[in-house]
Amino acid sequence: MPFIPHTEEDIAEMLASIGADSIEALFDEIPADLKGGTLKEVPPGLSEMEITRLMMERASQDGFYQNFIGAGAYEHHIPAAVWQITTRGEFYSSYTPYQAEASQGTLQLLYEYQTMMASLTGMDVSNASMYDGATALAEAALMAVRSHKSSRRILIPETVHPVYRKVARAIVSNQKIEIVEVPFDQASGQVRLESLDAFATDDIAALVIPQPNFFGVLEQVDALTDWAHSKNALAIGVVNPTALALLKPPGEWGETGADIAVGEGQPLGIPLSSGGPYFGFMACKNSLIRQIPGRIIGRTNDLDGKPGFVLTLQAREQHIRRSKATSNICTNQGLMVTAATIYMSLLGPDGLRRVAAHSHANTSRLIKKLTAIPGVEQVFSSPFFHEAAIKLPSSAASALAKLKQNGILGGFDLQAHYPELENTLLVCATETKTEADIDNYVSQFRQALS
Amino acid sequence: MLIFEHARPGRRNYSQAPKASASFDDIPDHLLRKKQPLLPEVSEMDTVRHYTRLSQKNFSIDTEFYPLGSCTMKYNPRACNALAMLPQYLSRHPLAPEDTGQGFLACMYELQEILKDVTGMAGITLAPMAGAQGELAGVMMIRAYHEAHGDFERTEIIVPDAAHGTNPATAVMCGFKVVEIPTDKEGNVDLNALKAAVGPKTAGLMLTNPSTLGVFEENIAEMSRVVHEAGGLLYYDGANLNAVLGKVKPGDMGFDVIHINLHKTFSTPHGGGGPGSAPIGVAKRLLPYMPVPFVTLEDGKYRWVTEQERPQSIGHLSAHMGNAGVLLRAYIYVRLLGREGMNRIAEFATLNANYLMAELRKIGFEIAYPTRRASHEFIVTMKDIKDETGVTAMNLAKRLLDKGYHAPTTYFPILVPECLLIEPAETESKQTLDAFVTAMKEILDEIEQQPDMVKNAPHNMPLRKLDDVKAARELDLCWKPGA
Fold first, then answer.
1. Phi/psi of residue B463, nearest 5 degrees
2. Which of A23, A112, A298 is facing B347, going by the closest CB pair?
């Protein structure tokens, strides 16, 4: 029997010990009329050899493409050591570290992760991760409302990832929290201070500030942070962790820094994998520590005074506080954070900065070459990090279809989320793209337009 | 030693990052970072050694028996990991066109159909990323259902006192008031209390069955009738689905919405605390509210169903479609087990639990619900032992670590004093269970002969008991250089 080790003799001895005639007798408390129900849709079991063949066939059917899509999930080189260590059984098959003495590996790793993320974001503390970037933003909004007291209104610019805005709305609206979207400036691709004037007299719990924003554009983070603080609102930064190696961290924005920083951790060593599992990160100022959701690891001592690590501040969490918890969240994305921590160790500050700088330089090169094609224009005038929007003289959908025939995923069609941005593509070339890849893309692109 | 303490300024890995540095002159200076982040400057070998050593300080299913109640710590087959990590699956961008992912989408669609069948529900969506998010989705749908029917007065969710903490926390996150109802002496939900609690304010009941007390709710049909007659909906917390897989379908028990913890019943890894995955199944009347996206099959092609087609959907719960890689592992697992393997999970999980319960009772442990069958888990209470010797459930748990066994779940459910919730899972052999019983007997003897030694356990672990109070009072959440 697959994954069941019992022999006939074992079964007989176990039933004798229990005093039951059969295994079926152990289900005698289930009302008879509820039992049964045959499984029609579940096919007969496969051997490991057979499932291997099936999964390899389906993988080959999907194949490989040169990927120039970003839009919230980014292709980066993942060092071989990352997943070899991460998938060691001791990390892969362990449970949540509730028994601290039997979980020092995971706990210490999470403490190291918290240290790295707090420093990368320039914040005081980090939790041990959330599900993904979108839910981390939703939780940050809830956190802002808990700490603000008077306002239940969150301002989110349209330059924030469109699906993040949807997720945040879906999750927080149950608690009568209002999400108000702030329009962006069509020329710069940024949210401008003037657009915030409309909210000058409102009571606001928080302003969300993306850096870079969904268009890849860099926002005026200092001014936006100061505006939020002048309104007695919190500033929530939504940031790309690779970019943080290069860009000013949220903790240093404006006069006093953003209050909460969240984002998608996927660029830190997590494969694209059709969208998950990824992880969300969340860091904040010390003053907000008791409002932060999710697991937190602290350093302490054992009975002999030796340093060790435990889950701490658990009085915020659902397994202790039940209906009064800061969130219903129970897990973190432990294994993903394991990979990210190993990734950050292997790259170090210099390596991560190189990844960021190369991604920026590659996208700059690509945009320069694409906009040299007659009729192709860069949409926004502001500086960008590692993706940018270009406007095509003809249908973006048809250009993408032609590129795909030549093995290239050419970018993300922005019209899906921004009806006003017709025939506009968001393109991204990370450090994984060579000059030849970029030239190939440009030449295929030229043909696709003709 | 922390990874940061292995670091030396200027040490770096030359093969893993781009060789030359690149220009970023066009980014305005005031937007740039001035101070380098505190990432360790270590060699590849330092990193590999450090994290390999850390891994060795963990207990895991691959190294120890892990009878952790309500967590279903079964073996995670290696094939599930190896095949989900084929490079084509890993490299696929979530926004890549559907026709470049028909192989992947076929797996997702078939997983939906299989889960529909084993749960007896009308629809499945794979979106939620963990049990608690599955609960959130389910309760949001209950709310959306009532509101779509113009019923805005249903402000309460009923939750038994034995429920997981996520149940009440989720209800509150969805804007509901929690009404807690007690458990009777036999471990069933108190039916009279339920009857008294339901009414025009009842939005729904959240129930785990078999319950976290390790017993099947015998009155489930009656409970279902009571809640439905009051106009409420029934939510099934699938945390313990492993105990009845292939035996009873939640849909047949009258549930309107359920979540399934793939990291429990379908053997995807716990990963030291995630990622989980919790598809939800719905009855016909909740189909319009399912979160998006999910996969459909049309004219031989798989594609995502989006919110444009589902205007009443509760919307998106993640940036993409949940934890796709976890879903792939679950798919591989169900294909390995097949139709005939589903029943066997429940059968052998139940056999192991009842055997272990019988053996522990024989050596002198008190069973909390001795007249009941165990489902796939059961509760030992150490109340009398504590009263006589002062040794607590937590002390025993720590002493088990010394003997090479992960501790059972302790102090949950909270209504049973000094409890150990024990779930052996079907993948453990009789010989492992017997060795565990021997260890438990040794500890019983130790409690009698040297209780103080047991109270101060663990003794053989890399660290002794850790000071939780100090951790919370003198918060140290990040390492600082020179500290």
1. -130, 155
2. A23
A357: nearest CA partner in chain B: B22
State yes or no: cis peptide before B413, omega within 30 of 0.
Answer: yes
Name the residue in chain A with its Cα closest to that of B68.
A95
Tokens 């024990």 label which residue? B422
DSSP for B148-178 reads: HTT-----EEEEETTS-THHHHHHHHTTPEE
Q: How close A232 gets to chain B, by Cα (Å)?
A: 24
Q: Kindly list the domain boundaries of chain A, sorted by start residue.
A: 66-76+348-449, 80-341
User: pLDDT tens, B47-83?
Assistant: 999 999 999 999 999 999 999 999 999 999 999 999 9
Which residues does chain B have within 8 Å of residue A31's beta carbon, measured at their own beta carbons?
A: 218, 220-221
- Can you give the pTM of this predicted structure? 0.97
Which one of B30, B42, B57, B89 makes the best mutation probe of the A interface by having the most chain A beta carbons within 10 Å? B57
Domains of chain B: 79-337 (3.40.640.10), 344-468 (3.90.1150.10)
The answer to whether the Cα torsion of A69, B278, B313, A327 is positive or negative is negative
* A66-76+348-449 placed in CATH 3.90.1150.10: yes
Domain A80-341, what architecture?
A: 3-Layer(aba) Sandwich (3.40)
pLDDT tens sequence across A120-164: 999 999 999 999 999 999 999 999 999 998 999 999 999 999 999
> CB B33 to CB A248 under 8 A?
yes
Q: For residue A407, what is the nearest residue in chain B, using CA coordinates?
A: B100
Q: What ipTM did this prediction achieve?
A: 0.97
Q: How far is A299 from chain B (nearest CA, A)?
A: 5
The type of residue at A311 is L
